[in-house]
Amino acid sequence: MTAVPPPPTVSRSQDLHDCLASYRREHPQDVLLVEERVSADQDVTALVWELAARGRGPVVWCNDVEGHDTPLVTNLFASRTRIARWLGTEPAHLHEAYQQRSRQAWPMREVDTGPVLDQVTLGDDVDLTALPLITHFESDLGPYITNGIVVAEDPVTGVGNLSYHRAVVLSPTTLGTSLHSRGDLWRMLQDAADAATTLPVAMVLGAHPLFMLAASARVPFHADEREIAGGLLGEGLEVVRTPVHGLRVPASAEYVLEGVIDPRHHAEEGPFGEFSGYSSDRSTHNRLDVQAVLQRRDGLWVDVVGGNSDEHLNLARVPREAEMIERLRERFPCVIDVHYPRSGTHFHCYISVRQRRPGEARQAMLGLLGWDPYLKTVIAVDDDVDITDDSDVLWSLATRFQPAEDTVILERLPGSALDPSSTPDGSTSRMGLDATRGPSFSAVRIRISAGARANAARLLDSLLERGT
């Protein structure tokens, strides 16, 4: 008799619960456990904002959110150090590790079952009002889904697409959402409209951090971010089929909402606090009709802090920076590093260069302004300037930049529809500021020797220990 192989099982290495348990054991100081009751109306966001004001960005775990029985976890991506740890590297090598691992795409591994199938609710029994949503900002329309990763698949090739989209509950079975990125999901919806059909989708609400990071990847239309997730994880992403449309979703996800987007139907949604730091009501006003809810028995509610928080920005910024650094260095060897500062949300970028001939910094700036559709301003500085320090970059701009000679402006280009200063269709102008030393620049930057700095540090440590 031929032995029947056991059904495929789910790897614990792809389970968010095991990931967070391991992280809490190894880095307990980087996880803030909140046992006190917090309100579902802005308290979580306020807590994260206060931590950031104190220079801290730990994972925030709230066990008692008023009105909900589900623990809430947020701020996962607020720390680059933490993201680097999940990728098995140091912060200095974050971008290289991301690029290397994301290129090693792994095919998905379909399994028979997984934790996300613990509880499956279908049809008229669906009740989205039971989801443990929170309100993030006073200016928001109401409680919002901020961690919604929409999965869609090409009906011919089966190639999938992942993308983040905010969503608000409109009724027990409908969501209002925006496809404001006008990306691949928007393209797939237009194809559905041309075919006079609906677009089946699944919205993943909470999964392993590396799956969430893969959903922000900047890849061509034919690339499947679920295979990129496998590259980041170091093994094929384990997936199960959704019950209605058979879409492949992470077997260990916390929640999955399955349904359709009908291109003929629209719904009002917004305003919501976006990455620009403004409350935005710009929206494509799409309606997602939910036909099934999948959830773990022990589910966590994974929240992504909205607005211009470190988490919201880092989640999109790390893949973007990794791609831009690699492309720039390939074409322009003078480029040393690239940094998207929090102060510029996604609209500003600093590049550090070591010029071998005049004009190289301008070439690099133009390349970056052409490649990244979100950017409006790029500032190029010499490699003696710390591009992670806004004040150092502004000092270089103040002392090495002449507006009439060192400004490059490009007009009427596509930008972000969520930029409140752009035109209604998202058009914008772009600017490059060359704050590098020109060929005739002769001033010498002041310096304090390393020995004197070390002596001063020892003296201050001694004085502080004595309470002086």
Topology, element by element:
Layout: H1 16-26, E1 31-34, H2 43-53, E2 59-62, E3 72-74, H3 80-86, H4 94-103, E4 109-110, E5 119-122, E6 148-153, E7 160-164, E8 167-171, E9 174-177, H5 184-194, E10 199-205, H6 209-214, H7 225-233, E11 238-241, E12 248-250, E13 255-266, E14 272-273, E15 279-280, E16 286-295, E17 301-302, H8 310-331, E18 335-339, E19 348-353, H9 360-371, E20 377-382, H10 390-400, H11 403-406, E21 407-414, E22 427-435, H12 450-465
Total helices: the number is 12
CATH superfamily of the domain at 91-304: Electron Transport, Fmn-binding Protein, Chain A
Amount of helix: 25-40%
Measured distance between first and last alpha carbons: 83 Å
- What does the average pLDDT come to? 92
CATH architecture of the domain at 91-304: Roll
| Percent range for β-strand residues | 15-25%
Task: List the keywords.
single chain, 468 residues, alpha+beta, UbiD C-terminal domain-like, 5-stranded mixed beta sheet, globular, disordered N terminus
Please provide a written account of the structure:
The protein is an alpha+beta fold. Among the domains are: 91-304, Electron Transport, Fmn-binding Protein, Chain A (Pnp Oxidase, Chain A, Roll), CATH 2.30.110.10; 332-435, UbiD C-terminal domain-like, CATH 3.40.1670. It contains 12 helices and 22 strands. The strands form 5 sheets. Strands 5, 6, 7, 8, 9, 10, 13 and 16 form an 8-stranded antiparallel beta sheet that branches. Strands 18-19-20-22-21 form a 5-stranded mixed beta sheet. A hairpin with a 5-residue loop joins strand 14 and strand 15. Helix 4 (94-103) packs across helix 7 (225-233) and helix 4 crosses helix 8 (310-331).
